[in-house]
Write a structure and sequence with these properties.
heterodimer, A: 368 residues, alpha+beta, DNA Polymerase III, Chain A, domain 2, 3 domains, 9-stranded antiparallel β-sheet, 8-stranded antiparallel β-sheet, 6 helices, 16% helix, elongated, B: 449 residues, alpha/beta, 3-stranded mixed β-sheet, 20 helices, 8 strands
Amino acid sequence: MNIECGQDKIIDGIHKAQRIAGRHPTLPVLSCLLLEAKKNNTLVIKATNLDLGVEIVIPAKVLKEGTVAVPAAVAYSFLSSLTTGGKDIKLEVDGNNLLIKTQHSNGTIKTMSHEEFPNIPRVVAGKEFNISSNDFIKGLKNVWYSASISGVKPELSSVYVYQDDGYIIFAATDSFRLAEKKIKLKKAVDFGQILVPFKNISEIVRIFEGINAEMSISFNKNQISLSYNGVYLVSRVIDGVFPDYRQIIPKEVKTNSVILKQDFADAMKISHIFSDKFNQIHFKIVPNKGVFEIQTKNNDIGENLQKIDATVSGDETEINFNHRYIVDCLQSIDTDSISLDFSGPNKPLVIRPVADNSFLYLVMPMNR
Amino acid sequence: MNDFAQLWEGVLVEVQGATSKNNFSTWFGGTRIIKIEEGVVHLGVPSPFAYDWLSGKFHNEILRALRKLNDHVRALEYTIVKEDSRKKVEEKKKVQDLTPTISMPLENYYINKDDNLNPRYIFENFIVGPFNEIAHSAAQTVVKNPGHSYNPLFIYGGTGHGKTHLIQAVGNHIKKAFPDKKVFYLTSERFGSEYLTSLQENKAQQFKDKYRKYDVIVMDDVQFFSSKEKMQEELFHLFNTFHDTNRQLVFSSDRHPNFIPNLEERLKTRFSAGMIIDIPEPDYESRMAILKAKLETYSISLPKEIVEFIAENIDGSIREIEGLVNTIVHQIQFKGKELSLMEIKALVKNSTKPKKNASVKDIVKVISDFYNIKEDSVYDKTRRKEVVKPRQIIMYILREDFNISFPSIGDKLGGRDHTTAIHSYEKVKNDLKTNPILLEEISQIRGMI
């Protein structure tokens, strides 16, 4: 292999791919990136951890075709430390070494045998649709923190993506809280439903965030692929059924309150200092006195009472929540005000941005 | 199954020699033979990566090894299967002490959008005891040969006896065993409301077509068809289409079709055409088994005497057992220690609804609904035949099950003399000896009170 290519392009490609390569107990070659120089003047960078696979195609001047497996960590550290804005980089294989030459620096990296590097699977016989990358990434980012980390129920360790009535809907729950984001589709697509393992979502977001273009998605019952302009990612999907969570959304609101998001976030931050080992926080709402209080108490540290300016209506309520579950949702809310709807003891609290019904968050109370 | 494992073991030994250790453990870990059909070996592999690698690089070697051990093997096909579930049990224990936050009742809402079935209702977790073994074996017969053995299969029994679980398990099993058959589950209520909507929107034909495209229909709670003539007619036509083309129907109801009031005769006889089986209340042993299984899913074990105490003291529906187990689990998680027998006793007392505590008015309502007469007519002086019989049964039940005195019974049912109450009681008691239909009716009524 002997090629020349733009420094920024190859660094960007390697940056995207290197996080997926990692340590694998039985297949050391997976810690490598596979570089393939092809006749049509392209360089293909591949990485996989057998759960997720990525392929990035960048233009290159190929003087001699060839394939090489190079340890991802070394290659990335070396290339990303080079001064930016540099000219072309030359890559050449010499025996078991990869020589990387730039204007000021020459590196020689030991390579591994690429024979054992697996193929990145293609999605065959699947459904396909196109969607704005911004919409898709935003949907995933707005809900994925709610997915279950335990892995006991694979469908709950996933983000559920489905379409309904012209919307693409993203939902995730660990059964203690639930996030749902709806995004209006610019053009109707019919794709049924997909369960994407949440472990893979951070990589999907990292690779496709900010490309700001139409990307194409195709999936079958085993895997999903996302691709845009030379970047191809394939992930396992969960073959399962997501609960019909809409039935859990309380139909009757007992106590409603509207608060400035910033006020609420600040109060939550302070109250967290004094929360106990269960992260318990106590809400007290007395509508006819206009009271909205958040209380935390830790026998070893002390206690705290926060009063918040809020518009409140309905019944008097006192209820406990896990602090973390509530704070999590604030990252998905862009509006200035939020509304909190309480539906009585043992019923979930519903948090929504005011005047924006694209996002919905449910939190179950604590058992006390 | 064992033969498959042995065969695959043999193949692995052959292949192992020809590959590096790393390669072998990466790609052959988690593989197994799922089935062998007409010489085609179906190999289960854990991921698309393994599929790609094995079929691309090892296909010939595997096939050669298979043929060496079994000369009937013609071809090799790959299927991607989910990981083994063995790993999961260990993880479960960790989750428990995580959080005192109440969890959402998501379990109840798992519904597959295509067929409306809840995938958790399967035979594997259906607990079979003496009380439901007949129903279970009939269901097993049906899934072996859907549409041909018992069509329709009609399961009836009280609430919480496991009807829905059983009929959905039939649906789920057929779906798995016959992937080309389209299964659909619905409640009679949904059937009714869809039918009404179709009439309003002038889409009656679409409604008909929708249901006629399925191969198996599982319909829950058909007692709600009572007094709904148009819907009964629609069901009747659907029934005929299905029956004529040997497509399976499965029904459930809270009572025998003959006792569903205002059900057309032609539907009754059609329901009876296949197999009608009842699931009675679970007996003591079955309650023990169910209780143990439920506790196991939370990986909680209770001392033997506590389990026995619960099984003895809770009867009736499985749902009550589930509810109690949930309460116990919550309490254990919350208190962080095991519960004593005393505490369990208190819980059992709270969670079971006190038996035999219905008011006279409620009983009159249940029985007059059952015989489809007006509630008020029971209290009237009328001696019309259709009122007299239910009234006598009311008196019988009040005396026999609730130990209310005869004068008080007479008084409460429209100021009648106590001798009337005595006469009615004796009459029903005597009739019961000779009239099995009456016996059946009364046991149904008792189930509903």
